[in-house]
Amino acid sequence: MERPDDNTVAAYLSALPDDVRVQRGQMFAHPCAFVNGNMFFGTFAQTLIARVGVERTAALRAEGVPAFEPMPGRPWKDYVQLPASLDPAALGAFAREALELTAAMPPKVKKPKAAPGKKGKA
What we know:
By secondary structure, the protein is an alpha+beta fold. The chain has helices spanning about 5-15, 55-60, 90-105; strands spanning about 25, 30-35, 40-45, 45-50, 80-85.
């Protein structure tokens, strides 16, 4: 999987909202941001992804903005994929929108770890 270059990471970092709710982490070994355990903004190859909701994703797709598709034929219905070269103010607006939408979701509950040797056995 293609890793983000320095320019993509810089675009991500400059768009990331300065908000105490933001938690930095990684997904697919790419820098991304979470709120309440849910991912809302991140990098993927040389692009940025933002969670904007199902309806907004559909509206943006109609305008030519692609849905995030980490695997061909498997789009994430509430994420869009943005070029890292997009205007920094526009990227920041997408990141803030994604933060607010995702912050309104219930916190993600971590699944308990399976006991060693029990995986896949009935």
